[in-house]
Design brief:
The structure holds two protein chains of two kinds. By secondary structure, chain A is of the alpha/beta class. Chain A is built from eleven helices and eleven strands. The chains are: A alpha/beta, B alpha/beta.
């Protein structure tokens, strides 16, 4: 049986602790679900440190631990909690190398989910970190992607914001870009939208459309490869960028960059510009396959 | 017990800090320094006493300073040339001309830079102490001590029984807003409520020195009442009647006090001249 992303993360955390690379910090880690089953059942004596519920200070504790070069993994169970957890990570750890030549690497496991969890906690909030210097932002959705990122972190001096999504934890497969041949339009997808983007692509292809896809793991720094730029340049209708955050964040910022690199129109889809309610009627979810298909058809027909 | 020999040692350090700030004051007036500078004159006996105590204990603590950090840096042995260069924005400065006056950092003396957000040194110092278990001093102002995350840091340091000393350099002012306008409680009481040692004292070295054998054994907070001689930032004085412990101890030491003071003034002046742009 292939390994799920959930199990992959759990094994990485276990090895991080057992090999004494560093500690794991967070709130309610040892609770019933062990953070969606991504943590091994270990305790403070093993390096799994339960913090108090003071979010802002908690971020500071992780920064202090990182200053001692202990490469902490800092678990933020809902990305929305970053509004309180981020200040010292962004303003101290991320700037530490530049100002003091003092490495302060933290592996921030920031976890998204959505659907019935209201206006604060849900979805991805990676845009919150995006504008600041000195941070690397990644969003792995497959086991191999996650392993690669963790290994890179171990030899890096920077803070990594790892934008996870609970919807991906059961995933066992890897993603492939499709930019061969001339496409009418290319989907560029981030985080959980990558799954729905694949579905939309398949459905559209069944209907005769020629749709490409580029999966984004590295959000910051973000750089399209030459063949990806060429593929976008060859399209008639440019591309559509999908995100699990509000569009007035990473989506539009990267869209502008891609537009400058390719000269093609970049449409964006993400969360709607409204607060999420708890009920189905008032929720704010990332674009699903049907919505993506509809939007792409409209772009092509216009 | 602080004997005369030790008091002289502390005074020598304090004199170094005081004269540095006095000369820096001039450099700001002369516009040789062109960005905000937070002078610590008036508060120098806190860091000077603590550096004497840690040196006697043969402990090299990790230091997490606040923005008003020149005296902390110098008292614990920070390189003065690097500070002079830093204040002129030079790459050879203590923080490569980036950190300026408020973010001094020195690997040599285990001092970690301050990011400019008040009180962040609280949680960051606690986190560093938690994983390393090394003796740690966190310096705070009476204003930054009010930050909610500082209070949370005290709570966690107490819970984890860390070898940490919180020092509140209480000059009673947040820029110019007095403490009584901002709150009706004292940090020493807050510390006690978090089940750690909390003490209220003035910056007389004799009173600070009394804690020598107690520090780093368990979490402790010293709220040390002191007086800021100059403006919050820049070169100016809020009042010419401010209590000045330096003058009192210098007078107490008589000719020796004057001699130490003058020697430091001449030496630092020369160093400033040598390293001015």
């Amino acid at each position: 049986m292939e390994k799920t992303l959930r199990l992959t993360i759990k094994e990485i955390v276990r090895s991080h602790l057992k090999k004494k690379i560093g500690k794991v910090f967070g709130q309610c880690l040892t609770a019933v679900g062990w953070v969606g089953g991504t943590l091994p059942e270990l305790y403070e004596k093993d390096g799994m440190v339960e913090l108090s519920m003071a979010d802002v200070a908690g971020g500071g504790f992780a920064v202090g631990a990182a200053l001692m070069n202990t490469r902490p993994i800092y678990v933020i169970r809902y990305q929305g909690f970053n509004w309180y957890n981020a200040p010292m990570i962004l303003n101290y750890a991320c700037k530490s190398m530049e100002i003091w030549k003092q490495p302060c690497p933290i592996f921030v496991r920031s976890i998204a989910m959505e659907g019935g969890i209201g206006p604060v906690a849900g979805s991805s909030h990676h845009s919150l970190y995006f504008r600041m210097p000195g941070i690397k932002i990644v969003s792995p959705m497959s086991p191999k992607e996650y392993i690669k990122i963790y290994q890179k972190f171990l030899s890096d001096k920077d803070v990594y914001y790892v934008s996870e999504h609970r919807g991906s934890y059961n995933n066992t497969s890897e993603f492939k870009n499709d930019i061969k041949e001339k496409k009418q339009l290319i989907i560029i997808a981030i985080s959980i939208t990558r799954f729905e983007a694949e579905k939309a692509k398949k459905n559209l292809e069944k209907q005769g459309y020629k749709i490409g896809i580029i999966h984004v793991v590295w959000i910051k720094p973000f750089k399209l490869k030459k063949n990806e730029i060429n593929a976008i340049k060859k399209t008639k209708h440019g591309c559509i960028l999908l995100d699990d955050d509000y569009v007035d964040g990473i989506a539009n910022a990267l869209g502008n960059k891609i537009n400058l690199d390719t000269g093609k129109k970049v449409h964006t889809m993400g969360l709607k510009d409204k607060s999420a309610g708890f009920s189905k009627r008032t929720d704010n979810l990332p674009p699903n396959a049907k919505e993506i298909e509809k939007k792409i058809k409209k772009i092509i027909s216009d | 017990m602080l004997n005369k020999k030790k008091l002289i040692k502390i005074f020598k350090t304090a004199s170094l800090c005081r004269n540095f700030e006095k000369i820096t004051f001039k450099k700001i007036q002369e516009k040789i320094i062109k960005f905000p500078v937070y002078l610590s004159a008036g508060q120098e006996f806190i860091a000077s006493s603590l550096s004497q105590m840690t040196s006697e204990l043969r402990v090299k603590p990790m230091i997490f300073a606040q923005h008003r950090c020149h005296s902390t840096y110098l008292a614990f042995g920070g390189n003065m040339k690097k500070l002079i260069n830093e204040l002129q924005g030079n790459i050879s400065g203590a923080t490569f001309g980036i950190g300026g006056s408020a973010s001094l950092h020195s690997k040599e003396i285990n001092m970690y830079g301050h990011d400019g957000h008040m009180g962040t040194q609280g949680p960051i110092g606690v986190g560093a102490c938690f994983v390393s278990r090394k003796p740690t001093i966190v310096f705070l102002g009476d204003a930054s001590a009010e930050e909610d995350y500082v209070l949370a840091a005290l709570g966690w340091a107490s819970t984890k029984k860390l070898p940490i000393l919180f020092v509140v350099e209480d000059n009673n002012l947040s820029i110019l807003t007095k403490k009584k306008v901002r709150r009706n409680w004292e940090m020493s009481d807050v510390a006690k409520s978090f089940k750690m040692g909390g003490y209220q004292l003035d910056d007389n070295p004799k009173n600070i020195y009394r804690f020598k054998e107690k520090i780093f054994k368990k979490p402790m907070l010293l709220n040390i009442n002191t007086h800021r001689l100059f403006w919050h930032a820049g070169a100016g004085q809020d009042s010419y009647k401010t209590f000045d412990r330096y003058k009192i101890i210098k007078k107490k030491l008589g000719i020796l006090g004057n001699k130490i003071d003058q020697e430091n003034f001449i030496r630092i002046n020369k160093l400033w001249k040598k390293h001015s742009d």
